[in-house]
Amino acid sequence: MRNNVSERVSWKPLFVFGVLSLILAYVVNKEISLPLPAIVMGGILGGAALFFSTLFYPEIPFYVLVAYLPFSRTLQGNFGGLMTALNLMNILCLLAIFGYMSPLKKEKVGTFPKSALNFAVFLFALVGAISLIRGSWEYGAWYMEKFIIPLKRWLTPIFLYFLTLLIVRDRRTLKTVVLIIMIAVAVVGLLTIKEHIDIGQVGSIEKERVGGIAEQPNMLAAFFCYYMFLFGSFFLCNSTKPRYWLLLVPMLICFRGIQVTFSRGGYLSFFAGGLALSFFRSKILFVFTIFALVIALMNPILLPQGIVYRLLSTFKNVEQMDEQGRREIAAEGYEGEEVVLEGSSRGRLIIWKGALKIIADYPFWGTGYGTFGAVIPFYAPELRGRRMDAHNSYIIIAAEMGIPALLIFLWVLSLIIWKTYRLYKTAKDPFLKATALGFLAGLFGVLMANMFGSRLHHEEISGYFWILSALMLRGLLFETSTSPELQEGVGKVKTAVRTLPIPVPAVARSRSISSSLRRLDKMKYGVKE
Predict the structure, then answer these.
(1) Most exposed residue of 118, 180, 205, 271, measured as fewest CB within 10 angstroms of its CB?
(2) Which residue in 396, 422, 416 sits closest to 477, CA to CA?
(3) Which of 9, 11, 4 is nearest to 429 (CA)?
(4) For 408-451, what is each residue's pLDDT tens digit?
(5) Within 10 Å of residue 152's Cβ, how many Cβ atoms?
(6) Of 159, 246, 190, whose CA–CA distance to 18 is shortest?
(7) CA nearest 76: which of 461, 460, 499?
(8) DSSP per residue over 420-477, as a string?
């Protein structure tokens, strides 16, 4: 059997969900507001269509969910405020679960894969829930009422990991999900560039920064750094085929998207992901990339000037500051310095120092989920009167949930990296190999981006991270298992066997169904997949 992508993936759903992504992007860009009756009627009709299709094909609502995920913040789908708790995200998840359990679907329900990664992810989610319960015991019922919804939003992307493992049962579904993700990421890139054009040049970087689907520039930059390398990996793994050079276009669109966020953490995350992409693909390419980066740093004129300006703005000359600025740096202990960090960077150092004191006082359980902003002013007096984020995922997890939670989180990340690397090294399917390489590069972008902010706390940013993590585990099972059910799906194998122009007993006497099909394919018996 050939591994040609076009034979493995049905292009009809890709076209449909590509159009869906464009429609969602258009609605976001135009800020279209529909009348409430139209919203309700559309929800009823769309829900009914999804419900009946779900009875036979549980992957359909999951495809819709994947296409909708990046727009879940700007288009919450709560039907005009009528259904705050049961929004479109929750409805699509429930429909996918219902379809998975439906007795009418075409294929048999498989077993849930056993893996240490599953246990680690579940344990991390459990620790987060325990943190909320313990906090409500210590602070009172008001704490539970205030943070139960934020915790649910934090847990939803993690739930998508397990949902993906349930729905994705064959290679075709896996590949379709990956391609929908790539289409959605490219659409988000186009939407970001369009928003930047609409803003124009207003004489201030802060006003020109684009927040896009995340409504926050640093978050948007992290989104691109996590997933844009999928385009680069498919190009590098198929560089001898001219059509794959077209994938450089969406990758450049995403890079431009990072540029217009003016996010220093985003720039560093892009460099980390790019270096990882070249390192794992080819050591020669990695050396060349390092050489090119050194040349660019020595000659900043070779870099985009927006990036250079933003990075250089990290440092300020004291002599060029006004009197108020000089008093601020003197109060912070920088008196006598000629060059200091700008205010945002200095503030992060203050926050991190205060956060380390919090961790020292609450090393095991932390202060409770969502409490960092209220607690940090007591440990950093300079921040009194302000609620501040930790600007670091690792620190905020340790401060709010305790050091054990941080260790579990690092365990989860290490397992995801290891399994993705294993899939890349062992995959014989070119599509799975390219996907693993792109996600592996994106994982190093994840590691870097979360050094400068909490970039895994929102559905629209981290949803694809957990979905792709589950796909890596599924892909690894497809590549390492000899079971025909895992390789192609029970229904597809049975269909292929029924179309053989020879008696079934002859196939049964062969070593395996899959090997027999491969031989028949070579003999041009016209096996249908």
Answers:
(1) 205
(2) 422
(3) 4
(4) 999 999 999 999 999 999 999 999 999 999 999 999 999 999 99
(5) 14
(6) 190
(7) 460
(8) HHHHHHH--SHHHHHHHHHHHHHHHHHHHHTTSS--SSSHHHHHHHHHHHHHHHHHHH
3-state secondary structure of 149: helix
Q: Are 398 and 359 in contact (CB under 8 A)?
A: yes
Quick one: how far is CA 364 from the chain centroid?
29
Residue-range domain boundaries for the chain:
5-281+402-480, 315-383, 486-522
Radius of gyration of the chain (CA): 25
Measured CA to CA, the distance from residue 201 to residue 281 in angstroms comes to: 39
Give the model's confidence band at 260: pLDDT under 50 very low, under 70 low, under 90 confident, else very high.
Answer: very high
- Give yes or no for a contact between 217 and 153, defined as CB atoms under 8 angstroms apart: no
> Which residue type sits at 460?
E
Written as six digits, the tokens of 176 are: 């379709």
SS3 content of the chain, % helix, strand, coil (to 5): 75, 0, 25
Closest CA to 354 of 367, 342, 335: 367
How would DSSP label each residue in 87-129? -HHHHHHHHHHHHHH-TTSSS---PPPP-HHHHHHHHHHHHHH
Residue 304 near residue 259, CB atoms below 8 Å:
yes
Average pLDDT of the chain to the nearest whole number: 79
Q: What is the DSSP letter of 316?
A: E
Q: Quote the pLDDT of residue 7.
A: 39
Question: Is 194 exposed, middle or buried, given 0-12, 13-18 or 19+ CB atoms closer than 10 A?
Answer: middle
Tens of pLDDT, residue by residue over 357-391, are 999 999 998 999 989 988 888 888 876 656 678 88
Give the C-alpha separation, 269 to 258, whole Å: 10
Hey, which of 156-160, 196-200, 339-343, 371-375 has the most confident mean pLDDT?
156-160
Single-letter residue type at 425: K
Measured CA distances, 418 to 124, 412, 436 (Å): 18, 10, 11
Residue 137: count of CB within 10 angstroms of its CB? 12
What is the 3-class SS of 159-222, one letter each residue? HHHHHHHHHCCCHHHHHHHHHHHHHHHHHHHHHHHHHHHHHCCCCCHHHHCCCHHHCCHHHHHH
